[in-house]
């Protein structure tokens, strides 16, 4: 998510050679400035940050460590503003959230992503279709609701979003929902009619949070429009979307500081799991190249059922991992979102994440072939890959069903067999130890100095 900034920062840091003199410090500051501006951080924010880093470094004695410490502390200061972090539940349910933003910024998609995020955390969520401007808006939200299994409150033939919001809240209270997410209408630009409508929806729904959803690709325009929304209706959080695109990331560094409202979430793709909480401490770790094990652990904990995980690891140990397990595991990984953003949370893996930019786990040719093959198998065959391995007529049937050649099927079977063997070996005593060692290293990973 922050590979560009993180990489240019680490390049800047690498170039810094301190010999306790001011000339070296100035050079380091110039490098830092270049990398931040290149990442599109607003120039005023850069100036302020540099000044503080300079002062702090001098105060603690010019040196590489004091420079890095000063950078870390002041980055945290810039990212942290007064307000909530991540999703915060009201003391009395339902927690009501109003989603606002300009047209096409990603409000409806993000409403779905938040609902999915909360559903994985076992919350009962109601999404409210209060965008009655665009013809297909209600339908879009309904489709998302169906896809993630979250109820949508919609009123056919109703033209007044205020009425819809009101009724939705009554419905949510009566039916004991934990969270109500209200999707609102966007406009091409800020206009009175939009603000009036939002003010009235706000009045009737009395939201615990008002999120401003902004397209990170619009750069400083996102900051300006967020400031205007804050002035007019008062927002309590920003969500930046489309971070997976060409966004250089700088908006995320400056926006909270620039408008005085915390950045709460970041959208990193079009799919429902592609949402990340924005927690300043963790982001600074990522920026400084130390990864973000906490977020990674949270993400995996939310989608992996511990009991199932144990069953699978037992099977692996016995060498009994089969195609059915494979499909199930693939589904779990899909729930966690795009591979790139997951890998970038591992310390020191920023570059690997960059290399994976275009890897799509779901749609890669290999995975498609394997899936097609598995879906052409009988349940018995899925549970026991050997059945196909040793029987040519089964092999031919599966190949035909999957639209693959016998050679391709043979290759996949062989790969699967090797992978299962490898997994078995790795799950043995020494393998586990290696893994544990690796995990403890990752947990204790320090910012490289
Ligand atoms: N790549 C990427 N695309 C996104 C992201 N969030 C939203 N989109 C896409 O942006 C487009 C607009 O998203 P919507 O959720 O419909 O936006 P909206 O703000 O509800 O739009 P209106 O209701 O017309 O105002 C869709 O094609 C989404 O798939 C994201 O984080 N990454
Ligand atoms: Mg919408």
Question: Would you kindly provide a written description of the structure presented here, covering whatever features stand out?
Answer:
There is one protein chain. The two termini are 22 Å apart. This protein is 59% helix and 9% strand. It has 22 helices and 8 strands. The chain is flat, with a radius of gyration of 25 Å. With 449 residues, the protein is an alpha/beta fold. It has an 8-stranded mixed β-sheet, with helices on both faces. It folds into 3 domains: 3-79, Up-down Bundle (Four Helix Bundle (Hemerythrin (Met), subunit A)), CATH 1.20.120.140; 95-281, P-loop containing nucleotide triphosphate hydrolases (Rossmann fold), CATH 3.40.50.300; 297-443, Signal recognition particle, SRP54 subunit, M-domain (434 Repressor (Amino-terminal Domain)). The protein binds guanosine-5'-triphosphate and magnesium ion (MG). Magnesium ion is lined by residues 107-108, 131, 137, 183.
């Amino acid at each position: 998510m922050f590979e560009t900034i993180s990489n240019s920062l680490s390049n800047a840091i690498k170039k810094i050679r301190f010999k306790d003199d001011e000339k070296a410090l100035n050079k380091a500051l110039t490098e830092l400035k270049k990398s931040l501006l290149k990442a599109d951080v607003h120039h005023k924010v850069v100036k302020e940050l540099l000044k503080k880093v300079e002062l702090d470094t001098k105060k603690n004695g010019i040196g590489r460590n004091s420079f890095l410490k000063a950078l870390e502390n002041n980055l945290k200061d810039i990212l942290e503003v007064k307000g909530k972090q991540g999703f915060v539940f009201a003391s009395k349910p339902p927690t009501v959230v109003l989603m606002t933003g300009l047209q096409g910024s990603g409000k409806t998609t993000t409403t779905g992503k938040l609902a999915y995020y909360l559903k994985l955390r076992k919350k009962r969520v109601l999404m409210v279709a209060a965008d009655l401007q665009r013809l297909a808006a209600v339908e879009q939200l309904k489709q998302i609701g169906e896809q993630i299994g979250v109820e949508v409150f919609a009123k056919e033939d109703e033209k007044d979003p205020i009425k819809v919001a009101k009724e939705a809240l009554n419905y949510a209270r009566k039916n004991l929902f934990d969270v109500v997410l209200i999707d609102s209408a966007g406009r091409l630009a800020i206009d009175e009619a939009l603000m009036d409508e939002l003010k009235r929806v706000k009045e009737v729904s009395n939201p615990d949070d008002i999120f401003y959803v902004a397209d990170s690709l619009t750069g400083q325009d996102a900051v300006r429009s967020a400031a205007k929304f804050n002035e007019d209706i008062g927002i309590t959080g920003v969500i930046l979307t489309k971070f997976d695109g060409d966004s250089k990331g700088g908006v995320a560094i400056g926006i909270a500081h620039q408008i005085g409202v915390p950045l709460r979430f970041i959208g990193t793709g079009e799919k429902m799991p592609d949402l990340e909480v924005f927690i300043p401490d963790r982001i600074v770790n990522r920026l400084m190249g130390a990864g973000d094990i906490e977020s990674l652990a949270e993400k995996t904990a939310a989608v992996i059922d511990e009991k199932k995980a144990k069953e699978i690891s037992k099977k692996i140990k016995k060498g009994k991992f089969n195609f059915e397990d494979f499909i199930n595991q693939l589904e779990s990984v899909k729930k966690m979102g795009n591979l790139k953003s997951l890998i970038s949370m591992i310390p020191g893996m920023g570059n690997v994440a960059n290399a994976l930019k275009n890897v799509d786990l779901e749609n890669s040719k290999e995975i498609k072939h394997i899936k097609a093959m598995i879906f052409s198998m009988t349940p018995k065959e899925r549970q026991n890959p050997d059945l196909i391995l040793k029987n040519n007529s089964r092999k031919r049937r599966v190949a035909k069903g999957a639209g693959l050649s016998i050679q391709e099927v043979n290759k996949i079977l062989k790969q699967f067999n090797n992978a299962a063997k490898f997994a078995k070996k790795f799950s043995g005593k020494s393998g586990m130890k290696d893994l544990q060692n690796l995990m403890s290293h990752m947990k204790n990973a320090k910012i490289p100095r």
